[in-house]
Amino acid sequence: MNSRTCYEGCKGCCYKLMTSLCGLCIAMYWGITFAYIAFYHIWFATPYLRGFSIFAGSCQKCIGTIANCCCAPICEACGICLSNIAMRKMS
């Protein structure tokens, strides 16, 4: 019974000592890490993605216009030529 009390007391003291010494450093590290992540996302990533989205929308319109001007007439001509193909069942 005394050995158990001694064990529990030593374990509790060591835990409290290590927590007070190491816990502060670890808490500071995680606080700095989360602050950096929040700063990065708020001031860099989100504005960059918004700007990229605006730029990509204008590129999409330009490429769509070029595709409609160049590819659409070719596809329509091929469609007209190939629409007259008739298939017959051979026995």
TrEMBL record:
Entry superkingdom: Eukaryota
- What is the annotated localization of this protein? Cell membrane; Golgi apparatus membrane; Membrane, Caveola
Topology term for the membrane: Peripheral membrane protein
A Gene Ontology biological process in which this protein takes part is:
caveola assembly
**TM segment ranges:** 21-43
Question: Keywords for this entry?
Answer: Cell membrane, Golgi apparatus, Membrane, Transmembrane, Transmembrane helix
One example of the protein's molecular function in GO is: molecular adaptor activity
Q: Name one GO cellular component term.
A: caveola
State if Chaperone is listed as a keyword: no
Described by its record, this protein's role is as follows: May act as a scaffolding protein within caveolar membranes. Interacts directly with G-protein alpha subunits and can functionally regulate their activity.
Q: Which family does it belong to?
A: Belongs to the caveolin family.
The record ties this protein, via PANTHER family, to: CAVEOLIN, CAVEOLIN-2
| UniProt protein name | Caveolin
Q: Which organism is it from?
A: Pinctada imbricata
